[in-house]
Structures are given as structure tokens and as C-alpha cells.
């Protein structure tokens, strides 16, 4: 399974008045991490949109379990991987480490979306290309 790792330093603007990361900032980091993971696998988001005629890859479900807080100046490591693929959707897991400790477990469900062939004003899920599945499954 393909895993992408990136180190992130917590910035002042990520934190609330108590100097801990305001939780929506993590979801922005996870969104970035998904895009960076695809780029590391050889598929930039823009390439996917153009090559496969997509409108986007929206998130349709997300959640997280927060175990350890982070504060301004801390370094965290975000490890991202695709857990599973379905016809047009996929599940992403982001594990966040602070040092060696698991700080956050986050989960996303994303869907490939294109224009409906009968009505371009509507959107329709698009099938996951087999070459993308193969790339992420082989690591």
C-alpha cells in the first residue's frame, strides 16, 4: 500500500487562544495531504481532472479522533494512505504523529465526480481508473 509522509510545523495561525491547534486547521492539513499523496504517486489533482474529465474529487465524509494536542512550533508527521477503493470512491486514512506518539487518526471518503453525460448542468460520480488503483495498491 502506498503511504505518503510529510512533516508539518504548527504555525501561530493554526492555533486558538489556548495555543492549541484549532481543529478545522487539521482538516485543511488533511485535504492538502491527500493532494500531496496523489502528487507523490504521480497523479496531480489537475492532471486527474483533465485526463479523466473530472470536475473534482470532493470529500463526502470525514471524521477524526484526537489523542494528543499540538501547539505553536510543534512538528507533526502526517502519514496518508488509501485504505480502500470502491467503484467511484475511496477511503483515505491520515495518521498524525507527534514524535513517536499517535496524535490523531483521521478518515476521509472522497468521490470522483464528472459532468452528467445527459445533462452537463448536473454532476455524476465517475469510475475509479484501474491504473490509479493499481498504483496505490502496489505501493
UniProtKB/TrEMBL annotation:
Domain of life where this protein originates: Bacteria
UniProt-listed InterPro entries: HotDog_dom_sf
Name of the molecule in the record: 4-hydroxybenzoyl-CoA thioesterase
Amino acid at each position: 500500500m502506498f503511504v505518503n509522509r510529510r512533516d508539518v510545523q504548527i504555525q501561530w495561525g493554526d492555533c486558538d487562544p489556548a495555543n492549541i491547534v484549532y481543529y478545522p486547521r487539521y482538516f485543511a492539513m488533511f485535504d492538502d495531504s491527500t493532494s500531496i499523496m496523489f502528487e507523490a504517486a504521480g497523479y496531480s489533482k489537475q492532471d486527474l481532472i483533465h485526463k479523466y474529465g473530472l470536475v473534482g474529487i470532493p470529500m463526502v465524509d470525514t471524521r477524526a479522533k484526537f489523542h494528543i494536542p499540538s501547539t505553536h512550533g510543534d512538528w507533526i508527521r502526517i502519514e496518508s494512505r488509501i485504505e480502500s477503493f470502491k467503484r467511484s470512491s475511496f477511503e483515505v486514512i491520515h495518521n498524525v504523529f507527534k514524535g513517536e506518539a499517535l496524535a490523531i487518526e483521521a478518515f476521509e471518503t472522497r468521490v470522483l465526480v464528472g459532468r452528467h453525460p445527459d445533462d452537463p448542468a448536473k454532476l455524476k460520480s465517475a469510475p475509479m481508473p484501474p491504473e490509479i488503483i493499481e498504483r496505490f495498491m502496489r505501493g
